[in-house]
């Protein structure tokens, strides 16, 4: 029987664990399997792109990158607000799971979308932190997907404040408050 997976787990937002050399080897294998899958996808879509593989925070990290002009075409694989990227990531995780027999937590980035979004979210979180410190009260942010909420939670924790996710998908959002 299959265990239900929460939206946060699908996005891989659990706290990273220290990786052993055996774990790193397994994650590198996941990255290679994902890269093979994504290369086939790029061929089918007739898109040019290079695939970078890494292990980051206890998970396989795969990024599709391209020359300056090619990034414009790769953006089609990102979609509006990253929803196509999320779908491609989930399909890639399923392809890895089919080969390894284990659920993958790999993170996929395409044309730097997640990196850029992380920078935007950091600014949003910092502004909300300032507001929470000034007012001494709670500050609720707009609804976000699990990846985005994880970024905000990390920024808030680093600033010494407290944050919680409230609500139900797709309206789940972060609330920040002083410690």
Write up what this structure looks like.
The chain starts with 6 loop residues before the first helix and ends with a strand. It has six helices and six strands, in the order H-H-E-E-H-H-E-H-E-H-E-E. A hairpin with a 6-residue loop joins strand 5 and strand 6. Helix 2 crosses helix 4 and helix 5 packs across helix 6. With 179 residues, the protein is an alpha+beta fold. The protein is globular.
Average the pLDDT over all residues and give the rounded result.
Answer: 88
What coarse outline follows from CA principal-axis ratios? Answer: globular
The amount of helix comes to 40-55%
| CA-CA gap between termini | 41 Å
- Give the H and E element order: HHEEHHEHEHEE
Low-confidence stretches: 1-6, 9-16
Structural class: alpha+beta
Query: What is the spatial order of strands in the main beta sheet?
Result: 1-2-3
Question: How much β-strand is present in the residues?
Answer: 15-25%
Number of DSSP E strands: 6
Largest sheet report:
3 strands, mixed
Radius of gyration: 18 Å
Alpha plus pi helix count: 6
Gist of the model:
The protein has helices spanning 7-11, 21-45, 68-74, 83-100, 113-135, 146-158; strands spanning 50-56, 59-65, 107-110, 139-143, 162-166, 173-177. The protein is of the alpha+beta class.
